[in-house]
Each structure stands twice: as C-alpha cells, then as structure tokens.
Amino acid sequence: MKTKTKQISFKEELFLESGRMLSPVTVAYETYGTLNEAKTNAILICHALTGSANAAGTYSKDDENQNVGWWNDMIGAGKAFDTDKFYVISSNILGSCYGSTGPASIDPFTGKHYGRKFPVVTVKDMIKAQKRLLDYLGISKLYAAAGGSLGGMQVLEWAVTYPEMVERIIPISTSGRITPMAIAFNTIARIAITKDPNYNNGDYYGRTAPKDGLAIGRMAGHITYLSDVAFHKKFGRRYATFEGIYDFGGFFEVENYLRHNGYKFTERFDANAYLYLLKAMDIFDLTYGYSSYTEAVSRISARTLFITFDSDFLFPPYQTEELVKIMTEAGNKPEWVQLHSDFGHDAFLLEFDSQTAEIKRFLAN
Fold first, then answer.
1. Known catalytic residue: 312?
2. Catalytic residue among 212, 312, 342, 346
3. Active-site residue among 73, 212, 227, 345?
4. CB 224 within 8 A of CB 179
C-alpha cells in the first residue's frame, strides 16, 4: 500500500491551554481506506512520542529509500484496523517535526524558526488541531479512536473533551497522567539537551545541532521502553568490545545498543520538538479543568477497550486499573485486556497478533 503524507493549513487562530495562540496551524496527515457515504466509518489513529502521520503503508522520496509506517502491521486490508471496512486517519501531532506546526516551523512574524519561542502545547491542544482536520474532512463523529503511549493519552483526551464525537476508544499502554518516575526520566532528557553546548537556547537551526544532548536524552527514554526480561534476553551481560574493558575502551552490548539508537535518532528528529513533546506528556493530566480526576474520567461515555502489557515499566497496568474502576463506578462498562509480553512498553509496537485479535473483536461489536 503506497501512501502520501498531505498537509492542510488553517489560518484561524488556535487558542492554546497556556493562553497563547498559534496561526497559521499546519497539520500533516494520511488516510487509508474509503470514507463511506454516511461518513460513519472513520477511525482516528494517534501516534506516540516520536511517531508521524505515516502510520501505515510505504512512502518514499525515491525508489531506493522507502519507509514503512510505524503501525503497518495493524492498519490495512484484513488487519486490526481493516481498511476494507474503515476509513483510517493518522495525523502528526502539534509540536512535532514531521509536517505539523512545531518549534522547527517558521514563525510567520519573524521569518525564522520558532525554536524556544514556540508556545508550550498540551495534549488537549493536539486534539483541538486534530478536530480541525476532522472538520475539514467533513467528519462529525468517529467510529473509534486508538493509540498507544502518548497516542493513548490523546485518545483519552478525545473521550473526555469531545465525548459526543467518539463512539469507541482503544487506549493502549497509556494513562490519564504519567508517574513521577516517568517525569524523572524525561527530566534527564531535558537536561541533556539543554546543557549540550550546541543547544544555544534552542536557536541552533542552520548551525550544528545538539546531537550529543538529544542522543543521551533518547538513551534515557530507551531504558524505559524495555523490560528487565527484555534486557536480559536481548543483551545479557555480553560484551560488544572486551578489549580495553579495564580502561573504559570496552563496553557491553547494552551500551552499544543505547549509543546506536540514541545517535540514530538524531538523524530524524528535532531536539526542540523532543523537548516540547516530553513537556506535553509530563504536564498531561485529565484532571485539568475539572474538580477531580474522577470527574474528568467519568465524562467518558464511549465504549472502551483498554489494552495493557504486564511488563510495561513506563505505564504500569495499575494506572489502567484506576481508570477502569472510575469508569465502572460512573456506569460505563469498559473492557480491559492485559496481554503478556516480554517487550515492556514497546509491546504495543511489536505484539501485533494478540492486539489484532482483541481489536477486531471490539470493533466488530
């Protein structure tokens, strides 16, 4: 399935939770399948921290450089999100660097990159931009919204902020607010990036990018994406280079993995965007605007399927248990499926078969 990322720009001001506003706002998006005549078969897919609009299929700038969508095994004909039945929409979130407006975008008032002058955006701001996209596409109601991690946060926010617009939600490996431990790991990333000598208070565009800081920040994130079992199975205590082990010249396989993935990440992602999205994740709390967490969660009226993984270190399943309890007491009847996996938080991007079975069943009812 060949896909192409499109962009739509909205001139009307987008008023943010911070009290600031953005204009124009560009949203990058892709669609898969066909919207039916009644426009009742639309499913919104929300991506995680560093994802993009390219959720499925392949796209390329040339024939030699193809990229496969980050959830390609879940979206398509006969797959979990069956494009023979559904019209699937995926958009790049506000604040990112894959086509939607973010800190690497050009500020129309200065003609320069926003950098740190870009306003802090929240998950609610992200879904307000997504709603503009749906309005543009002529979709007034979603058959379902689904996503994992930060994508799952967006799904929950959709169900709380626009309960009348969402019939079903599938929040995966997520929560209504992250733990202090998760904030602590994000703090390491922020300090690493902002202390990089090349960061220059976010004004590094056209100069040397803060690659070391971004790589270290991403390394901290990778630690939280796996489980203890996954680290043992994948790396153990094996050496990548034994020579020089007594003078810091040698290193373990796990160190090699972190270095490789950390610096590879700097080739595709913007440091400022990473800071802004981590900030959005940290300050996300469904309670904001309501008297309590219970009041906010009780607003969810959509049919709900929660999916968690027993080895998730970043979003421990007890957070979903709290959501299920509140919703049940409010009269909703959410489904909660906990799946076994050794992959940790990354399981929602890897455990396709088990998720597909549950999602297909849920969407069919």
1. yes
2. 312
3. 345
4. no
Catalytic residue among 96, 105, 149, 173: 149
pLDDT value for 245: 80
Residue 363: per-residue pLDDT: 98
Of 259, 278, 297, the one marking the end of a domain is: 278
Active site residue 149: yes
CA distances 81 to 32, 66, 74, 157, Å, are: 10, 22, 6, 21
For the entire predicted model, the pTM comes to 0.95
Domain at 240, CATH number: 1.10.1740.110
Q: Is the domain of 329 the same as that of 194? A: no
| Catalytic residue status for 135 | no
Rounded Cα distance between 243 and 30, Å, is 48
Kindly state the average pLDDT of the residues 255-262. Answer: 96
- Over the stretch 183-198, which tens digit does the pLDDT of each residue have? 999 999 999 999 999 9
What's the number of domains the chain is made of?
A: 2
DSSP label at 144?
E
83 and 192 assigned to the same domain? no
Query: For helices 271-283 and 150-161, what crossing angle results, to 10°?
Result: 50
Containing domain of residue 207, as a range? 183-278
For residue 1, tell me if it sits in a domain.
no
Retrieve residue 246's tokens.
């007594």
Which of 243, 278, 313 is the last residue in one of the domains? 278
Query: What is the distance between the alpha carbons of residues 137 and 124, in angstroms, rounded to a whole number?
Result: 20
The arithmetic mean of pLDDT across residues 132-151, rounded, is 98
Domain assignment of residue 203, yes or no:
yes
SS3 146: strand
Q: Tell whether the model's pLDDT for residue 65 goes beyond 60.
A: no
